[in-house]
Amino acid sequence: MPPQLSIFYLYLVLAAIVLAVFFAVALSSRKPREVPQLAIQRTRLGFLILLCLVLLPALGFTLVKLPYELWAGEVPDRLVFVAGKQFAFAVSESPVTTDEEWQAKTMAAPVEVAAGSLLELRVTSLDVNHSVGLYDPDGVLIAQVQGMPGYVNRLRVRLDRPGRYNLLCLELCGNSHSRMRGVVMVRGGA
């Protein structure tokens, strides 16, 4: 079973529990009654301890899954510069800093990288914020980074499968936001 499906089922179970507790509390509060404050404090403390016992292991489990430590100290095989501007991404092997460079790079052939190489995307924007989503050849989102004017964000990915990887804007940036694209081609063999 894919991990996303497992997480979805876990979400459904937890949502059902929350709804059941909500309805139980709603039904029990129809008739006002005296409740001892000490009992309320003990119940709250119990819920806090239970929450910590559930969330702390979950936090520990997810923190070991961070991808960025995998390549700490490793020099990327290729640098690819991405500059967003309404309504396209200029993808280049050299930095894009002006409107003229951006225009030329949006019309240029896609950047090609070897499969299996460590790729570092250096992402910026020439106008407004753009959220750059990197999609594999099957259209599955595999990485995301924010492109902001005057700042360069770095994203390292290892693209193992040959094919066409699309860069799509994930942040509404204007009327033609849905057409905003860029391309990285991955060829076979490292």
What does this structure look like?
With 190 residues, the chain is an alpha+beta fold. The chain folds into 2 domains: 3-68; 75-187, Cupredoxins -  blue copper proteins (Immunoglobulin-like), CATH 2.60.40. Helix content is 33%, strand content 31%. It contains 3 helices and 9 strands, in the order H-H-E-E-H-E-E-E-E-E-E-E. The protein has helices spanning 3-28, 37-63, 99-107; strands spanning 78-85, 88-92, 111-114, 118-125, 130-135, 141-147, 153-158, 163-169, 181-187. It has a 5-stranded mixed sheet with strand order 3-9-8-5-6, with no helix packed on it. The protein is elongated, with a radius of gyration of 24 Å. The protein starts with a helix and ends with a strand. The mean pLDDT is 87.
List keywords for this structure.
five-stranded mixed β-sheet; 2 domains; 9 strands; 3 helices; 190 residues; 31% strand; single chain; four-stranded mixed β-sheet; Immunoglobulin-like; alpha+beta
